[in-house]
Specification:
alpha/beta, Double Stranded RNA Binding Domain, Rossmann fold, 2 domains, five-stranded mixed sheet, 6 helices, 33% helix, 23% strand
């Protein structure tokens, strides 16, 4: 049976982890996983929220399709597009391709409702992946972010995946933390300049049962669905200590997450 650990100890563990991420520059940089978060964890996390998913390419050998789509996912992430290959859901954009004559590829981008919003033909091959990724990124990334000085309204949606009372505690804490930076809350999604989506991913406890991993993503989106960026926080905490009330842990997580969101908005020129 796991020995209870004071909430303060959990809070300090999370804060230390977040500060370490900030020190290495990873916290505010969109869609870059923390150094200690392997790529497969990031890709698994994308499967639980809206993302851009690259489908296998019919007509290509399995190995060739896998190499090409993996390269495209990596290129899209380099352009700050949250791309993955392992999952799909109703809120996902989908990138697909079909093989045509002379080994040319017909690429398409479908919005969550299924409508094709971009289609083009390319000569194919791994050497073309960067050009293909840029064409998709030009559509998915916002071209005209709000200029500095514009009154920003942020809609913080209820957090997904948190155990205990984390769904409500983290949501309230993030709204409060953003307000402390002078950012106003939107009364509805229609009024929002940006939308903040929070997701929590708890790893399984090791055999010793003493520690388990936690990853918290704060994804900022424009109302049209374009991804602005993601603040990633990850650490290990004593197993089971977040199954009840989050208390001061929610405040510590939100304050550091809000710092990353503000840095992100400054990076795209929406804040001075």
């Amino acid at each position: 049976m796991t020995r209870p650990v004071p909430q303060l100890a959990v809070m300090l563990a999370l804060v230390v982890g977040v500060l370490l991420l900030a020190a290495c520059g990873a916290l505010p940089r969109p869609f870059q996983p923390a150094d200690k978060t392997p790529p497969e964890v990031l890709e698994a996390a994308l499967g639980a929220r809206a993302g851009v998913f690259v489908e296998p390419i019919p007509g290509l050998a399995e190995g060739e399709s896998e190499r090409l789509t993996e390269a495209l996912v990596a290129a899209l992430r380099a352009h700050d597009v949250a791309a993955g290959r392992r999952a799909n859901n109703r809120a996902s954009y989908r990138i697909s391709a079909r093989r045509g004559e002379a080994d040319r590829l017909h690429w398409s981008l479908a919005e969550p409702g299924g409508a094709i919003i971009l289609g083009f033909e390319d000569q194919g091959g791994a050497e073309r992946v960067q050009l293909v990724a840029r064409r998709f990124a030009d559509i998915l990334n916002p071209k005209n972010p709000p200029s500095a000085g514009t009154v920003l309204l942020l809609a913080v949606r209820p957090v997904d995946g948190a155990p205990g009372d984390g769904r409500h505690a983290l949501t309230r804490a993030m709204r409060r933390a953003l307000k402390e930076y002078g950012l106003k809350a939107a009364e509805s999604l229609e009024d929002a300049t940006f939308i903040v989506l929070g997701s929590v991913y708890m790893g399984g406890a090791p055999e010793s049962g003493e520690q388990q991993s936690i990853t918290i993503d704060w994804t900022v989106m424009s109302p049209n669905g374009a991804r602005i960026g993601t603040v990633n926080q990850s650490n290990t905490v004593p197993s089971g200590t977040l199954d009840g009330a989050w208390g001061p842990v929610a405040r510590a997580v939100a304050e550091n997450g809000a710092q990353g969101i503000v840095a992100m908005l400054e990076r795209i020129g929406a804040l001075e």
